[in-house]
Specification:
Length: 293
């Protein structure tokens, strides 16, 4: 239920921002009697394309806390030795990575962990109770280093920018094709006909699938980089290799779709090309090929 409410609330927020912005800028009229205004359409596409991804990034921390029920560890009063160790470990890793100390949280669930936040110096690292209960401290440290590496690499911001770019192209080209079908194929010269709207919907679905492939490919590459970052922060690749081997024998916990790609492990999408995480054996192999420092 939280996921549904979260999804609806995010979309309502995006629609509100778009409506106000487009009305103020007057860029919601890119088709007139004179034809298609490509420059106006591009501006419209940029606004629509980047609005959702940027808003999602800016509210990613509160979304993550709410949707997972994550409990933030109070740095001044951690609740026991495990929380103290977890907090100290994340802070030490953050100091090594040269980023601000993130908030640290624990949430109930099967083995998984994630990092999120709009800024490198104002982020969140959360781990599940399932991961804490099923791994050794060395393995947990490797997972935490992986998440800190995500933050240090600026992965959340980069992924947002890539999502915004591909969204822009989806919106832009869907309307170009829709206009062509409506005016050239169906010979409609009186405003926008049903051909335009039907074509835009079909093209947005088709182009959106292609865009998802691009975003998923980048997400898989950033997982390899974060694994390597974990090895660098711990001055050894073995802890991350052991952590991945342990994860390979566990069932990773689900994360909300809005930041599923931020987790340490995922189930993948409709197929390997849509998966946000590479297969565990491939990640282990990549680490084994790293030069020994």
């Amino acid at each position: 239920m939280k996921r549904i409410v979260l999804f609806l609330a995010t979309n309502l927020a995006v629609m509100l921002v778009l409506s106000v912005t487009l009305n103020i800028l007057g860029v919601n009229r890119f088709i007139s009697d004179q034809g298609l205004n490509v420059q106006m359409l591009l501006i419209f596409s940029l606004i629509v394309g980047f609005a959702g991804s940027i808003i999602s990034l800016l509210i990613s921390k509160p979304m993550a806390k709410w949707s997972t029920g994550a409990q933030i560890i109070d740095p001044q009063a951690p609740g026991g030795p495990r929380e103290s160790w977890l907090l100290d470990t994340v802070h030490q890793l953050a100091d090594r990575a040269g980023i601000g100390r993130p908030e640290v949280a624990i949430y109930e669930g099967e083995p998984n962990a994630f990092a999120t936040g709009a800024f490198r110096n104002d982020s969140l690292v959360a781990v599940s109770t399932g991961l804490l209960d099923s791994m050794t401290e060395e393995e947990i440290s490797a997972v935490l280093a992986h998440e800190v590496a995500h933050i240090a690499n600026g992965d959340m911001i980069t992924l947002t920018l890539i999502q915004g770019v591909v969204n822009t192209f989806v919106v832009f080209f869907a309307r170009i094709v829709g206009y062509f079908v409506d005016r050239v194929v169906l010979k409609n010269d009186k405003g926008l006909g049903i051909g335009y709207y039907a074509t835009v919907i079909v093209c947005e679905i088709a182009f959106g699938i292609i865009a998802s492939l691009i975003v998923a490919w980048f997400s898989r590459q950033r997982e390899y980089r974060a694994d390597a970052g974990s090895a660098q922060l711990l001055s050894s690749r073995e802890p991350m290799i052991r952590a991945l081997a342990r994860l390979g024998g566990l069932t990773p916990g689900d994360l909300p779709k809005s930041f599923e790609a931020s987790g340490i492990a995922g189930r993948g999408g409709l197929g390997a090309m849509f998966a946000t995480h590479p297969p565990i054996p491939a990640r282990i192999h990549a680490l084994q090929q790293m030069p020994v420092s």
